[in-house]
Design brief:
The chain has 68 residues and is of the alpha+beta class. The strands form two sheets. The chain has a two-stranded antiparallel sheet with strand order 1-2. Strands 3-4 form a two-stranded antiparallel sheet. The termini are far apart. The protein is built from two helices and four strands, in the order αββαββ. The protein is globular, with a radius of gyration of 13 Å. It is 25% helix and 35% strand.
Length: 68
């Protein structure tokens, strides 16, 4: 799935990262692109949320799940 996501993001600069805590770990992609475009791509790949970062502003968690 990660390989397919990287392919979908091929137009944008992508940095690879990872996060871990206790026994959990996960690969991360840091993508330099418009947040609206990334939200659309993230939904296609069934992501629950993305984190957006803008200069001089705190990071923001953007939920992609629909409320019931």
């Amino acid at each position: 799935m990660q390989k397919s996501l990287r392919q979908a993001l091929r137009r944008y600069p992508v940095l690879i990262g990872s996060g871990s805590w206790r026994g959990w770990s996960e690969a991360h992609l840091i993508v330099l692109a418009d947040a609206r475009v990334l939200q659309h791509i993230a939904r296609r790949f069934r992501q629950n949320a993305i984190v957006t970062v803008r200069p001089r502003q705190p990071a923001k968690l953007v939920s992609l799940t629909r409320s019931v």
